[in-house]
Design a protein that fits this description.
By secondary structure, the chain is mainly α. α5 packs across α7 and α6 packs across α7. The longest helix has 24 residues.
Amino acid sequence: MALFDTVSKDIVAAMKAKEKVRLEALRNIKKVFIEAKTAPGANDSLDDAAALKILQKLAKQGHDSADLYISQNRQDLAEAELAQVAVIESYLPKPLSVEEIEEVVKAIIAETGASSMKEMGKVMGAANKQLAGKADGKTISEVVKRLLS
């Protein structure tokens, strides 16, 4: 079942269970999914890879908002934001550890034959495709830089 359909089904379940925070988070997710589906050039479809990227972006925004609320001594708003982030993150795959990312990047370096920082773009392109949704770009970039230098 596609991620979009799963979220739609879970909205109904959250309504029946009267889970206010979960329902609000799921409705927000579905709204962003629909916006992505109807965007120009989207062909009225949303594959799971694009949906995962959207979920990662929403989770990151939620964490950033919570950090901002905490810095302004608004713990109540931070807790509400983090509760929604927890719902969003429940749909994301478990992130890989740095060691697991390193193994994948080493295999990609061996495949591409990259040996210097000049070929970082080639390695990053393959790594981002292979690790999409499982690791953030910053971590991947750090591992690639370390292994190529």
